[in-house]
Design goal:
By secondary structure, the chain is an alpha/beta fold. The protein contains 15 helices and 19 strands. The chain is globular. Helices cover 25% and strands 18% of the residues.
Length: 556
């Protein structure tokens, strides 16, 4: 780690009172191939991310960047299929560029969150090439190999999130290997102590280079049933509309191919490695959308596992006031003492927010995300109101779709920066872009939205500015407000010397709310209402949200 990073860490540490720096973090999920191309080859890279840091830290106002996988990879799964955990793939840059990213980010007081992909590797990884070379190879047990069950075609009935069985036949050694995703992504065997030590060594390699923490990919999948028992049938096999998975995947209850209790020991070992380093460093976990008590288990009984397991159940909550209020109440009730939530309303594996609920309600959702109790995560381009865009099969990069599953490419198209060619994403020819740029790039881009006071981007900027200067919005308690009803979600954020009231209209009709409060509108999704006085009753416009600085109880 550089001396500059050491000095910066000491100056920005949040200790005392139990508060950690990630309690006031605003995380930006950068899908690296799609953010910005720094060398003109049509693919986003580390140089492009460095060029974007002033926008992220200054213009937008986030405090941390999740880089996304940028390691050696054939890029069949956009970098989640890794051949070298301790080097940068040349398409994204090199280690020197990564080190410069760390230094430049820290100079702007931005934290860097690296991606950690512990469940699987590429089938081109040297470990797997050795493992499949012979049944007697020392690395054979580094992956999960099995024979077909008696009288059956496969070792068990487990289904892949992509499509078909999780088992792939290896002709050379005459056994099947396990792959929870693409057949080119064999699962590591975390029950092997050498695998565990090697993968914990990966953490130390990047921590030594100065990263501030990790987003742990599919943390719920790291341990499977050691007896490889079948999954039972799902009695209610409805397709999850929020997930981009093969429909047959929902025909089973996935109780043996993931979520084995032994995974919590693995998570504790990850936590212990992070605790070896000053900072402190954070573990953010991708955990599937579980019921709230099961989700809360990922913090650990002693808060010694994931510091921040994503609360993805919130993404999968129907966009209705009563449903959202119930989900938030359940989250708050399940949260262990001393734990802190991390929130998201979109990510690289789900349809974009504005696609799901429309651009007008996406503005309301932005206010929800940035005023709830917890650390918000912004998926790149959501600040512009980007929507999914169909990608022709011949241009698709995501092999999930090409292998018979559902493609993620429509959610991951390039970030439009200007109205120039390719939206300013790259100087390469349009036919050489990683993915086609969004069709609306001439109007939906950073430059155009900065010039429009009422734009989605400027709404994000105003909300982040308000949050930055409000103890109530950053750290305050959450309490549902009595004015909340089936159409409007209303809640308070309460600090010692400050109280904010948030009212969100989730309909296209104006709603009149009796708040019982006096105050002033700090901010509205309708930019013209800031500064307006509130006395007891307020009309919240169609598709509008307001943040009110409460000054006292209204007289009745």
């Amino acid at each position: 780690m550089s001396a500059t990073s050491d000095t910066w860490r000491a100056a920005t540490a949040c200790e005392g009172s139990g508060t950690r720096w990630w309690h006031e973090m605003v995380l930006y999920e950068n899908h690296l191939p799609s953010l910005r191309d720094g060398n003109g080859d049509g693919i986003g890279d580390l140089e492009g991310l460095i060029e974007s840091l002033d926008y992220l830290a200054g213009t937008l106002g986030v405090t941390a960047v999740w880089v996304g996988p940028c390691y050696g990879s054939p890029l069949l799964d956009q970098g989640f299929d890794i051949t070298d955990h301790m080097d940068i793939d040349p398409v994204f840059g090199d280690l020197a560029t990564f080190d410069r990213l760390i230094a430049e980010a820290h100079r702007r007081s931005l934290r860097i969150i690296a991606d950690y992909v512990p469940n699987h590797t590429s089938d081109q990884h040297p470990w797997f090439l050795e493992s499949r070379s012979s049944r007697d190879d020392p690395k054979r047990d580094w992956y999960v190999w099995a024979d077909a069950a008696p009288g059956r075609d496969y070792p068990n009935n487990w289904l892949s999130e992509v499509s078909g069985s999780v088992w792939e036949w290896d002709e050379h050694t005459g056994q099947f290997y396990l792959h929870s995703h693409l057949k080119e992504q064999p699962d590591l065997n975390w029950r092997n102590t050498e695998v565990r030590e090697a993968m914990l060594g990966v953490l130390r390699f990047w921590l030594d280079r100065g990263v501030d923490g990790f987003r742990v990919d599919v943390a719920h999948m790291l341990m499977k049933d050691p007896q490889l028992r079948d999954n039972p049938p799902n009695p209610n096999p409805e397709v999850n509309p929020y997930e981009l998975q093969a429909h047959e995947f929902y025909s089973q209850l996935h109780v043996n191919d993931r979520l084995h209790p032994d995974l919590h020991d693995v998570l504790r070992s990850i936590n212990r490695v992070l605790a070896e380093y000053d900072g402190p460093r954070v573990a953010i976990g991708e955990v599937e959308a579980l019921d709230w008590p099961r989700w809360a288990e990922f913090y650990g009984t002693e808060l010694d596992e994931l510091h921040l397991p994503f609360a993805f159940r919130l993404i999968e909550t129907p966009w209705h006031a009563a449903d959202l209020a119930a989900a938030i109440a359940s989250l708050e009730a399940a949260l262990p003492e001393g734990a802190w939530p991390i929130l998201a309303l979109g990510n690289q594996d789900r349809r974009r927010l504005a696609t799901r609920i429309g651009r007008r309600q996406a503005r309301v959702a932005t206010m929800l995300l940035l005023t709830l109790r917890g650390s918000p995560t912004i998926f790149y381009g959501d600040e512009l109101g980007m929507v999914d865009q169909d990608v022709p099969v011949e241009r698709q990069r995501d092999h999930f779709g090409l292998a018979g599953g559902v493609t993620h490419d429509p959610t991951r198209t390039p970030m439009p920066w200007t109205g120039a060619a390719n939206g300013g994403f790259s100087t390469a020819g349009a036919e050489n872009l990683w993915l086609p740029v969004c069709r609306e790039y001439k109007t939906i881009n950073v430059q155009a939205q900065l010039a429009d006071r009422g734009s989605s981007l400027n709404l994000y900027r105003r909300l982040l500015g308000l949050r930055r200067h409000s103890d109530a919005l950053r750290f305050g308690d959450y309490r549902r407000h009595p004015a909340s009803d089936e159409h409007c979600l209303a809640y308070e954020r309460i600090a010692v010397d400050e109280r904010k009231l948030v009212a969100l209209n989730l309909t296209s009709q104006p709603r009149r709310l009796s708040l019982g409060e006096n105050g002033m509108i700090d901010l509205s999704t309708d930019s013209g209402r800031s500064g307006e006085s509130v006395s007891d009753v307020i009309t919240v416009g169609p598709d509008e949200g307001v943040v009110i600085a409460v000054t006292g109880r209204a007289s009745r």
